[in-house]
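SEVERITY: medium
COMPONENT: batch folding queue
REPORTER: lab tech (J.R.)

DESCRIPTION
The queue accepted two submissions in a row. Attaching both inputs and their returned structure tokens so the on-call engineer can compare them side by side.

ATTACHMENT 1
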Amino acid sequence: MRITRHWTETAPEARGASVALGNFDGVHCGHQRVIDLARRPDMPLGIVTFEPHPREYFSPGAAPFRLMNREARANRLARLGVAELYELPFDARLAGLSAEAFAREVLAEGLGVGHVVVGADFCFGQGRTGTATDLARLGAGLGFQVTIAPLLATGDRVFSSTAIRTALSEGRPRDAASMLGHWHRIEGPVLHGEKRGRELGYPTANMSIAGLHPPRFGVYAVLVDVADGPHRGRHHGVASLGVRPMFGENVPNLETHLFDFRGELYGTHLSVALVEHLRDELRFDSLDALITRMDADSARARAILSAL
């Protein structure tokens, strides 16, 4: 998958794509429906999205809300067969473009798109004044087709990033996965930590969750994909997500123990899928009590993962 990071830098061979346009945070089932509608046999499949997320630009002090960082989003889109990812910088210049200027300067002249698919609730341009219907009208005059995708719903539930965040906040990763169409994953490099887990017989791979919406704190059964290095592959494990109250920490992170694993993972890229919330974070009276509970957590996680 080729990534273009500014509409003025589009390679000639990256023009003429059929694109899905939006933020695609989580790349959930609704997003996938929009992407599927962009698939054309005579055009490469593309995605037009933004970095940072517009909400981060307009509310820089807001609590973290993203389901995916840019790398995780790109990885998921590549798995869906996207050939061209146009990851545009959302800055003062882009935010200040009118709906008409965005359609003309970015989509038509800059990216040279042939077809655009947006959700029915899509808004664009300065002040979010442009609608999906406006884009269809503008596209007709600028030489690209527009398809408006209806919102995807099951019963009275609309698939949305907000509903997925709620499920994760409540410790319901399987419900989140049903809306995502895949497990919710936290991705990133393995960082050096305090190495307490190794002393307890449970070495862990530590990862930051900075900038991401924090799922409910606690212990999870997880699937772990090691993306690179000599240990590349899929592993089962158990992970602790939170602030480690036993040790007085206050910066949330993810600590993952891979079952039956031997080796070093520092600097390796991991993708950790949350499968089931086993329990909330607890403070134990002693290290022995903590280890006993970790043994029980691990046994339960093994049973859950073996049944997948």
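ATTACHMENT 2
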Amino acid sequence: MDGFSMIFFIVIIIFSAIIHEYSHGWVADQLGDPTARYAGRLTLNPLAHIDLFGSVLLPLLLIPTGMLFAYAKPVPYNPYNLRDQTKGPALVAIAGPLSNFVLAAVFGLLVRLYPVGSLTAFFSIIVQANVLLGVFNLVPIPPLDGSKVLFAIFPDSLRNLKITLERYGFILLILFIFFFFPILRPVISFLNGVFMGF
């Protein structure tokens, strides 16, 4: 990936992360929790979502490593406001990755419809960025969305395991990123192929 493509990828990751966070807030609002709306976060205005470290500094620091990633400020929400306390948290959590897969599907369709060229190259980068975000966020390690989906189906007997995972989640996530991230690559490659018809 050349320098311009890397910059474009980072920009797309940031805007895709904003849509990801907006989706969490929108679904939470629909399910009875207006926290994100009251906080002014139910908007696609980047200024409401940009995180100085996650959206600016982290991508710049990662460029030399070839590992491109960024995130936006998490949208606040109060699960106790949700009308459905059982399924609600899982639906709010899954909304973020689902929005990324929808974006990947839309731009993957454009890759199929347009003749191969610079435009389809940019569309394919958008697909790749969104597949990366969607798959990564489904990893069941706190604070990622996958953990919230997992916890929603955890029986009460596993409450202590949930507390332990939440306590050490950040450490586990760092270990995963540096040592186990390659296990996601086959999934990411497969989904890229599915969305773009390769």
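NOTES FROM REPORTER
The chain has eight helices and no strands.
No errors were logged for either attachment.
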